[in-house]
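Standup notes
- HV: blocked on the assembly model, inputs below
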Amino acid sequence: LLFAEFDDAANLLAANPDATTISIDEPTEIPKNQHGRLQGPGREEDDELLGTDDSDKTELLAGQKKSAPFWTFEYYQTFFDVDTYQVLDRIKGSVFPVPGKNFVRLYIRSNPDLYGPFWICATLVFTIAVSGNLSNFFIHLGKPTYHYVPEFRKVSIAATTIYAYAWLVPLALWGFLMWRNSKVMSIVSYSFLEIVCVYGYSLFIYIPTAILWIIPEKVVRWVLVMFSLCLSGSVLVMTFWPAVRDDNRRIALATVGTIVVLHALLAVGCLAYFFDAPELDFPAPVIPAHNVSTVITKS
Amino acid sequence: FAGLADVSISEDIPVEGEITVPVGSHSPDEDYSTLDEPVRDTIMRDLKAVGKKFVHVMYPKKSSALLRDWDLWGPLVLCVSLALMLQGGSADSKDDGGPQFAEVFVIIWFGAVVITLNSKLLGGTISFFQSLCVLGYCVLPLTVAMLVCRLVLLAGSGTVSFIIRLIVVMAMFAWSTLASTAFLADSQPPNRKALVVYPIFLFYFVISWMILTFTPQ
């Protein structure tokens, strides 16, 4: 993609030699150097993680992209400039995290979109509410005192929780990273939208997890929690570790730890609130009657 | 203008013509004349337009009538009747019952607005109200499903009635989604069609879920 832009410029120049041009020599040299450097040992992983090979060009592109003023409709259209295959690629990248590859640099590439985070959160809200309702229905199915209720209140609670997590936590994290960046010069910094994007796409794994939580077995549910937490947590950790690595060791570890803990809290909280615990099978009405009758005969 | 100073009109030639501007377009005439027509005609015209759109939804062919002459009367009637029929569930203050009237209303209208905004942000060429009109009218199959479910529930609420309701709701959900996709898909850029169709699917899925889980008191 990036090389194609320079080709177009050359073609345009050939077509119209009188046009004013700005020649930027440096970026064309950097990729060649990168190819040489990538062959070297040791720093290869770091370069891929940091994305210094295209960070200059991504900064240029980022500057050219969002030029419309924020009160026009076109400004917001730049956040939805994704095709179907791009969204599917990003989802795939969040579900199968490649160790060593940074989600933001690899998939987002300075084109953060709001489509993924918004609709993944919406799907997750309804999936959790519907699955929780279904799971409770199956758990309490045989009991004579159980009257099915759709529990529609829980949809609004789920919506508030998930949207607050997907937007407020990135806001806090972005603010925190900006503050630390002013003290410690870090090579990697993310814009607010990129952080929202990572968080939104990392929530995707919880959608199939929520559907599988219908199975009323405690062990199965906790295994699912661990598994999805590992996958999405690793995406988040691999994204944010390079950003805080240059900082004070304890602060870096505390930041990454907080990210993982909050993510775990979301998963466990949803499991605890929306899904009733599968009860052990015991014939509840029968035993007290026997006790009462034995007590009466004894006395 | 120098040459015109020499031009003069001889007094022998009569100057004639019409000064009035011929009224060729329809709308100024109609605006003036609909004041004189009986109220019944005015109302019947709107009702016929709404009825024609209902027919278009039930037999979705790619006609542009739904898109060209949008109106929001049909969606309003459908939304209110669906929300009313979803009442009468368990309204205990202790139990989390079904959705309240306001919740259904908000879900349908807010959902339709969000989907319309989504399709416009992705580069769709349809106008805002046309999209709202289509999404609202395509709730018709689900309203029919709600009616059928209530009638089935009058007969009984066992497993058989649940299976009948499930089949009916699933069929109507598929019908709604296909109808709205048939009308809306053409106005989207081709490599983003799935991105636009998915929220529509989610929207009708949520409405279908509300209909299916309706339990009378």
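- HV (later): unblocked. The two ends of chain B are 88 Å apart (CA to CA). The CA atoms of residues 85 and 150 of chain B lie 8 Å apart.
- Next: hand off to the docking folks.
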